[in-house]
Write a structure and sequence with these properties.
Among the domains are: about 1-120 and about 520-545, Butyryl-CoA Dehydrogenase, subunit A, domain 3, CATH 1.20.140; about 265-395, Butyryl-CoA Dehydrogenase, subunit A, domain 2 (Beta Barrel). The protein is built from 17 helices and twelve strands. Helices cover about 55% and strands about 10% of the residues. It starts with a helix and ends with a helix. The chain is an alpha+beta fold and about 550 residues long. The protein has helices at about 1-25, 30-35, 40-60, 65-95, 100-105, 110-120, 120-130, 145-170, 175-185, 210-220, 230-245, 245-255, 390-425, 440-465, 470-495, 505-515, 525-545; strands at about 25, 30, 265, 280-285, 290-300, 305-315, 325-330, 340-345, 350-355, 365-375, 430, 430-435.
């Protein structure tokens, strides 16, 4: 398997160099050419994710025996086939010698790999083993702090969150205060904030592994009512730690760490989506501060939150693009309702209305409207010297948010896989349990293989972040895990048949919740084109120049 992966890696690197040449002018990437070759860049990003996932899974299990290495080999065999199909397209469209790809696609090594690791008889046997362990796969060795945190939050999620999750979803409720208070007491909002500033992260170190472990545990019970509560303080805290003044850090981070106030992030605008550099919410200088005028959308938890991190254009020169953006901290009362209006003593107004959604209910995403809303100078992150740097602070925050989103996807996948395994064992059709049929066994095997691989890659990238690396990989694992969550929840619902389509069955919630994961914290296409593919192409050009 390793030799085959090395062959595919070499082909992948060749394809990256080929596309980099197409997208470059005078040795640098050209915006027009990048847009022209978006389909190739997209395929490269997806191939990069699948290939890294396969390599990570095989490496992590190669010295072990039993179910886990079998799952890794099954995923790797499927991934190699998928990556080669993507590279076939890229090589052909980029004018590269596609016979190199075809040679591997038709090689005895690949045929042997698929027969030994991914044939239907092998996969069915793996599926039976997955059923015997109840879908509990993807074991990752955690350090003591992370293992203890995960165990504590798994108990809390099972005992407290899970019994409330269906009611919150079906009745479109706001996350109840008793649940929020328990999470405050457990320190969930301060996972990325240093201990010296009121959080639980060791000073001077990342706390990525603990954050992943806690997020995964909470998301298994409910994505919207628990697992996603960490994302907003994660983004805001990292933005503050990157760009905030010492006084701002000392004032805000201890409050964020204890969930008083709760946070929301206002980035997206109706006309720009993930195009952060083009945002237009206007901040006009006035005595002692700024007046905000304009709209934001998809601002999750904006009603309940008492503190919004708002990306605004403080320089009216639109030609500056992202260099004209700043980050402002907007304070407001907390509302449990789906619609609110807050009027300042001077007449400034902030109104919001929840957007009805098919899933991800509990936190609610809001449309926001600012009308001459006043924000004081000391509420600009970094204050005057940081005007125009809001884009960079936002991106620093989004690294943690994307990593946390990958962990959320893992939690949803785990829940779906366990539900499917349990139902397949209990449900009898044509005189036998679903789990006894070969097709079901193969489905469970591939679901388990993909989940286990996602989990290993998520923790591996978390370790990279703790070592001061992995910024691009955080986007890559978010891309991969969120796509995988859609696939796994879809199969889990299908295994449930008609009951899977009923709201009373938890798997229907997993399915509609999972669909949002590829959209927020950087839409799939934006991450693939603007972060993952662009990083790969820039690295290729740097290698050529060197």
């Amino acid at each position: 398997m390793n030799a085959l992966l090395q062959q595919v890696r070499a082909l992948f690197e060749t394809s990256v160099c080929g596309v980099a040449g197409l997208c470059a002018v005078d040795g640098s990437l050209d915006a027009h050419r990048l847009d022209l070759y978006q389909p190739l860049c997209y395929e490269l990003a997806l191939a990069a994710a699948e290939l890294l996932a396969a390599e990570t899974a095989v490496k992590a299990t190669e010295s072990t025996e039993g179910l886990e290495p079998a799952l890794a080999r099954l995923f790797a065999a499927d991934a190699v086939t998928a990556v080669l199909a993507r590279l076939d397209t890229v090589f052909s469209d980029a004018g590269l010698d596609v016979s190199e790809v075809h040679a591997v696609m038709t090689s005895p090594a690949l045929a042997r790999c698929r027969k030994e690791a991914a044939s239907h008889t092998v996969a069915a046997d793996i599926g039976r083993r997955v059923s015997r362990v109840g879908g509990d796969v993807g074991d990752v060795l955690l350090h003591e702090d992370a293992a203890m945190a995960q165990a504590a939050f798994q108990r809390f999620a099972a005992d407290t969150v899970a019994p409330m999750a269906e009611k919150i979803h079906r009745h479109d409720l706001t996350v109840p205060e008793p649940l929020l208070q328990q999470m405050r007491e457990m320190g969930v909002f301060g996972l990325s904030i240093p201990e010296s500033l009121g959080g639980t992260a060791p000073d001077g170190k990342e706390n990525a592994i603990v954050m992943i472990a806690v997020t995964e545990a909470l998301s298994e019970a409910s994505l919207a009512a628990a697992g996603s509560l960490i994302t907003r303080p994660e983004i805001l805290a990292r933005a503050l730690m990157t760009g905030g003044t010492p006084a701002q850090k000392a004032h805000w981070l201890p409050q964020i760490a204890v969930g008083q106030p709760l946070c929301a992030i206002a980035i997206t605008e109706p006309d720009y989506g993930s195009d952060v550099a083009s945002l237009s919410l206007k901040a006009t200088k006035t005595t002692g501060g700024w007046l905000l005028n304009g709209s934001k959308t998809w601002c999750t938890f904006a009603g309940k939150a008492g503190l919004l991190m708002v990306v605004a254009r403080t320089d009216p020169d639109r030609t500056l693009g992202h260099r004209g953006l700043s980050l402002l901290l907007v304070e407001k009362p907390s509302f449990d309702t789906h619609e609110f209006t807050h009027v300042q003593p001077g007449g400034g107004r902030l109104s919001g209305k929840a957007i009805p959604t098919i899933g991800y209910r509990g936190m609610h995403s809001f449309d926001l409207s600012f009308e001459d809303f006043f924000v004081a100078d000391d509420r600009v992150i970094g204050e005057e010297k940081a005007l125009g740097k809001g884009f960079y602070f936002t991106m620093a925050g989004m690294v943690g948010g994307r990593m946390q989103t990958a962990a959320r996807a893992c939690g949803v996948m785990r829940a779906a896989l366990k539900a499917a395994t349990s139902y397949a064992g209990d449900r009898k059709v044509f005189g036998a349990p679903l789990a006894d049929y070969t097709l079901t066994q193969v489905k469970l095997a591939r679901m388990a293989a993909r989940f286990a691989t996602c989990r290993r890659l998520t923790y591996a990238v978390g370790e990279m972040l703790e070592a001061g690396q992995g910024r691009m990989e955080a986007s890559l694992v978010k891309l991969f895990a969120c796509r995988s969550a859609e696939a796994i929840t879809r199969e889990a619902l299908q295994i449930h048949g008609g009951m899977g389509y009923a709201e009373e069955t938890a798997v229907s919630r997993y399915f509609v919740d999972a669909r949002v994961l590829s959209i927020f914290e950087g839409a799939e296409e934006t991450l693939a084109l603007k972060v993952v593919a662009r990083s790969l192409l820039e690295q290729a050009l740097e290698t050529v120049d060197a």
